[in-house]
Design brief:
The chain is of the alpha/beta class. The chain has helices at 40-50, 85-104, 115-135, 152-159, 176-179, 185-192, 203-217, 249-257, 259-271, 291-303, 326-346, 363-372, 387-395, 426-438, 441-457, 460-472, and strands at 3-4, 11-19, 22-26, 32-36, 55-59, 71-73, 76-81, 136-145, 164-168, 197-200, 220-222, 225-229, 235-242, 277-284, 312-319, 354-357, 375-378, 402-406, 419-421. A hairpin with a 5-residue loop joins strand 12 and strand 13. Helix 9 (259-271) packs across helix 12 (363-372). It is globular and about 70 Å long. Bound molecules: adenosine-5'-diphosphate and 6-O-phosphono-alpha-D-glucopyranose. Keywords: Glycosyltransferase, Transferase. Belongs to the glycosyltransferase 20 family.
């Protein structure tokens, strides 16, 4: 339950992320509701913070000139940071999601550069740093998250030499050739180097960062370490290493084992006409997720007559995302056009070829969907980790189902026993889908057993403990 608080409190653990774990929603009658924010960062950090005492600094998801008062929510102290409508356009939709996001995801769509967006990014990062310093107790651990807040580490260090500063990147860090395009590249690197420890999803991401420091910034590097001049001391070492994120495996498995979740999974299948093969995609509606490639492969399999409804059906759940950014608008149009065409050509009455749903679902319903799906299709063109892939595996306590997984996800590096695909290779993707459908059940169970061993042994609490140990130097 949300409860307002007036006292200024300080904490030994402070995390900062662009979004708070809950979004403010103002209803038509003016009443305010707080709903869970979208995305993998919130999924992971919500679990991590549930067992700890700490503060979370972030934006409420609404425009405003003044910050809402801090409040406690499910045991966490939430410290809102205000963003005006102009700042949302320039810092969030602009620099974060139309400049950095494309560069950090292989320039799947072109990046846009505007100096005014950079200024807004600097100003908002400064505001986040001030808020962090306000709630950090002496000697606190400060854990900053993701690409929206890359200047915060140095801005906090400038004010507070007593705190320990870590940063974790939930998305990829680009190869130096792409990062080099960013006109403010050296200032971004200097911002990050304000941290004591930098965590990345893959070894390759950490290496890309260290290489960028050496080649574009002229910093001295050695292995995982970057040497930073730090007067009056001679120098300071910043370490950059891979700490791949995970999920609340136990919580999901418990949910999956509940009789009511299993009953709901059966009910979902029945309402889809009990197809022989239910294929499922679950993503934010983002061009990095390869939704168009997935639909193209599926459409060709239908065109070729290799599969057909009512035996086979596809459920695509696409959460609305960043809807004021042009590339996202275009993606939505293309996906909806494609779904319309596929259904027009291939549906039979009572059995559509694709069920397309443009909204999110509560966790219980997601787990029921995972349990109902015979083939989970995860086809990003680039993705830091992809928690959905791990969630599917964790939910399959029955060892059923099959995972089609893109090589371009962080998850692939842990789950290569899956039905692996290169989503750019449409023939290969079609084959991976068919293979996942046609492989005998006992072989699929063996694969799922291997995938589960990996996911169950590395959960999000272990990830957080490892990050914090790396940060505080106890590892
Ligand atoms: P990203 O962080 O890029 O959105 P991830 O796969 O890492 O991608 O994390 C997405 C998170 O959001 C997962 O926890 C997933 O279960 C959740 N999610 C994604 N789509 C939906 C949806 N349509 N409804 C509810 N939850 C969703
Ligand atoms: C990814 C990013 C997060 C972001 C989330 C949702 O998980 O790593 O930083 O919060 O997507 O995107 P949004 O723009 O809605 O916050």
């Amino acid at each position: 339950q949300a409860g307002a608080t007036t006292e200024a409190e300080t904490f030994d653990l402070v995390i900062a992320a662009n979004r708070l774990p809950v979004d403010k929603v103002v209803l038509d009658d003016g009443t305010v509701e707080w709903q869970r924010s979208p995305g993998g960062l919130v999924t992971a950090m919500e679990s991590v913070m549930a067992g700890r005492e700490g503060a979370w600094v972030g934006w409420t998801g609404q425009p405003g000139d003044e910050a809402d008062a801090p409040f406690h929510n499910e045991g966490i102290y939430l410290r809102p940071v205000a963003l005006t409508a102009d700042e949302i356009a320039a810092y969030y939709e602009g620099f974060s999601n139309d400049t950095l996001w494309p560069i950090y995801h292989d320039v799947i769509v072109p990046a846009t550069f505007h100096r005014a967006w950079w200024s807004a990014y600097e100003a908002v990062n400064r505001r986040f740093a001030d808020a962090v310093c306000e709630v950090a107790a002496p000697g606190a651990v400060v854990w900053i998250h993701d690409y929206q807040l890359q200047l915060v580490p140095a801005l906090v260090r400038a004010q507070r030499q007593d705190v320990r500063i870590g940063w974790f990147n939930h998305i990829p860090f680009p190869p130096v050739e792409l990062f080099a395009q960013l006109p403010w590249r050296k200032r971004v690197l200097a911002g990050l180097l304000g941290a004591d420890f930098l965590g990345f999803q893959r070894v390759a991401d950490a290496k890309n960062f260290v290489r960028a420091c050496r080649q574009l910034g002229g910093w001295q590097t050695k292995g995982q370490n970057v040497v930073v001049a730090d007067p009056p001391r001679e120098h300071r070492i910043v370490r950059a290493a891979a700490v791949p994120i995970s999920i609340d495996t136990q919580g999901l498995a418990e949910l999956a084992n509940r009789p009511e979740t299993r009953a709901r999974a059966r009910e979902l299948r029945a309402s889809l006409g009990n197809p022989e093969v239910l294929m499922l995609g679950v993503d934010r509606l983002d061009y990095t997720k390869g939704i168009r490639h997935r639909l193209k492969a599926y459409e060709e399999l239908l065109d070729d007559g290799q599969i057909a409804p009512p035996d086979v059906t596809f459920v695509q759940i696409a959460t609305p995302s960043r809807e004021r950014v042009e590339a996202y608008r275009q993606l939505r149009e293309e996906v909806e056009l494609t779904v319309g065409r596929i259904n027009g050509n291939h549906s039979v009455i009572g059995a559509p070829a694709v069920h397309y749903i443009h909204h999110g679902y509560p966790r219980e319903e997601m787990v029921a969907l995972f349990l109902a799906a015979d083939v989970m299709v995860v086809t990003p063109l680039r993705d830091g980790m992809n928690l959905v892939a791990k969630e599917y595996v964790a939910s399959r306590t029955d060892y059923g189902g099959a995972l089609v997984l893109s090589e371009f996800t962080g998850a692939y590096h842990e789950l290569h026993q899956a039905f692996v695909c290169n989503p750019h290779d449409i023939e290969g993707l079609k084959n991976a889908m068919l293979h996942a459908i046609q492989t005998p059940a006992d072989q699929k169970r063996r694969i799922m057993r291997a995938l589960r061993r990996r996911v169950m042994a590395h959960d999000v609490q272990r990830w957080a403990a490892r990050f914090l140990a790396d940060l505080t130097g106890t590892s």
